[in-house]
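Priority: medium. Attachment 1 of 2:
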């Protein structure tokens, strides 16, 4: 029973990670500054979403696997 829960949880994590990776770089709010010989990319929106995703995953992990 416990191994099945871990597999389901791992599958959900992989699906969410795949969705997030496919969206990275295209989110509004990410800062991109392009000059002649310089490109600065700061993914602030992506970082906030990643933080929220990890917080949710750790909360769920703690709640279901105590």
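Attachment 2 of 2:
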């Amino acid at each position: 029973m416990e191994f099945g829960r871990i597999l389901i949880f791992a599958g959900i994590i992989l699906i969410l990670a795949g969705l997030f990776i496919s969206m990275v770089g295209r989110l509004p709010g990410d800062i991109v500054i392009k000059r002649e010989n310089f490109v600065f990319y700061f993914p602030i929106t992506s970082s906030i979403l990643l933080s929220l995703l990890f917080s949710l995953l750790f909360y769920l992990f703690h709640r279901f696997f105590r």
